[in-house]
Amino acid sequence: MNPTLVDIGLNLAHDSFDHDRDHVVGTAVAAGVQHMVITGSTLDSTRAAIALARSAPDRFRATAGIHPHHAREFHAPDVAALRALLLEPEVGAAGECGLDYFRNFSPHDDQERVFRQQLELAAELGKPVFLHQRDAHDAFMSILKEYRSRLPAGVAHCFTGDERELRDYLDLDLSIGITGWICDERRGHHLRELVRLIPPERLMLETDAPYLLPRDLQPRPQSRRNEPKYLPHILKAVAACRGEPAEALAEATTSNALRFFGFEK
Ligand SMILES: [Zn+2]
């Protein structure tokens, strides 16, 4: 019997799911992933995420936001459009938003401007934030600190950082999203220690599908595409690292996620 789980980061609007989206959701539900939060990363993908969420509002929430990769395409007139999307009842959080200085697909000025615009909207509308940060910790922290007292909650999604970053986030009262990165024997090793430092009420789980297929699935799937049905595998990995029963971790992470994304309203 699989415990009930929530995948808090699923790019279900991604075109790799176009041919079999219902099947992907069905197999995830059969594996115990009863709820999913569909990530918006542009205005268009946010609209798609909301439309999907609307098809089964008990099952899904969407996020509404602009990924830092796309910050250069987001201009002042788009702010009103994003505000309207944030007000849709299916939207559980603002984001994903933040800074990514690893890929640098958008200039830093654009990334910082669009991050601020989204934090301002989230504060104004009382929405929690779904945060992305890579190789930009200090700039990210200094901007987030300006807004933190006005934000109801925030989650550092797909946390892959070091201990200093983790402690900074916990000090800002953020929740932490852990993906199958922890299953990566090449680059996820440090996370195995760090996840023990996360209080149970701050931890949530996500696949980030179709990205970040866990590298230690047995047998190895034919496709490189990650799916929400693999969330129980991530649960087991995190529980083993923390030395606690998977059932207890499932219960804690699920209740955190249901509350954070407003499933209980
Ligand atoms: Zn991200």
What does this structure look like?
The structure is a single chain. The chain has 265 residues and is α/β, with parallel strands linked by helices. The chain is built from nine helices and eight strands. It has helices spanning 21-30, 43-55, 78-86, 108-125, 137-147, 163-171, 189-194, 231-242, 246-260; strands at 5-10, 33-38, 60-64, 91-100, 129-134, 154-156, 175-178, 203-205. Helix 7 (189-194) links the parallel strand 7 (175-178) and strand 8 (203-205). Helix 2 (43-55) runs parallel beside helix 3 and helix 4 (108-125) packs parallel to helix 5. The longest helix has 18 residues, at 108-125. It is globular. The model has no long low-confidence stretch (mean pLDDT 96). Bound molecules: zinc ion (ZN).
Cα-to-Cα separation, first versus last residue: 27 Å
* Portion in strands: 15-25%
Largest sheet: 8 strands, parallel
Alpha-beta content class: alpha/beta
Q: Gyration radius, to the nearest Å? A: 17 Å
Q: Helical content, roughly?
A: 25-40%
| H-E string | EHEHEHEHEHEHEHEHH
Which residues form runs of ≥5 with pLDDT under 50? none
Overall geometric form: globular
What would the average pLDDT be, to the nearest integer?
Answer: 96
Number of strands: 8
